[in-house]
Amino acid sequence: MDIKQIQELIKFVSRSGVNEVAIEQENFKITIKTNQTPTVVHATVPQAPLLQAAAPVATAPTAPAASTPAVPVAEDTSKYITIKSPMIGTFYRSSSPDKPMFVNVGDEVATGKVICIIEAMKLFNEIESEVSGRIVKILVDNASPVEYDQPLFLVEPI
């Protein structure tokens, strides 16, 4: 690995939000550690009480409306199969910007069909469906970073 590849890896790790990445080859070993998650957790904790304090005073009618749609969504997702990312990388819905998307909401997929690409360290990995069914929801935006085991698609089994 040359210095440019190492710099790109460091940038990738910092953007992806992963805490630690270790790569080991025959005569080379690198471990990159970040402390991004504790910073985000500390930033989120103080904001939550402020939002909760403001919500009952200003938006009491909208809170039940927002929670009502959330209940059916939680129930609906229990009958769906979640396809998760097998690696960290950048999620792409097509092989190139001018090519059609691999799958769209409503499409039927079979086991072994390519449903997306995840780019990791300049390698484009085709991700195949492990289930047969109909795509109900795409949970990740095109060209956005994904983490290992992050949900990508919801599939209704057929």
Automatic annotation (TrEMBL):
Xref: InterPro entries: AcCoA_biotinCC, Biotin_Carboxyl_Carrier/Decarb, Biotin_lipoyl, Single_hybrid_motif
Keywords (A to Z) from UniProt: Biotin, Fatty acid biosynthesis, Fatty acid metabolism, Ligase, Lipid biosynthesis, Lipid metabolism
Top-level taxonomic group: Bacteria
Pathway in which the depicted protein is active: Lipid metabolism; fatty acid biosynthesis
GO molecular function, one term: acetyl-CoA carboxylase activity
PROSITE patterns reported in the protein's UniProt record: BIOTINYL_LIPOYL (PS50968)
Residues annotated as domain Lipoyl-binding: 80-156
Its job: This protein is a component of the acetyl coenzyme A carboxylase complex; first, biotin carboxylase catalyzes the carboxylation of the carrier protein and then the transcarboxylase transfers the carboxyl group to form malonyl-CoA.
NCBIfam families, A to Z: BCCP, PRK07051.1
Protein name, as recorded: Biotin carboxyl carrier protein of acetyl-CoA carboxylase
Phylogenetic classification of the source organism: Bacteria, Pseudomonadati, Bacteroidota, Sphingobacteriia, Sphingobacteriales
Gene responsible for this protein: accB
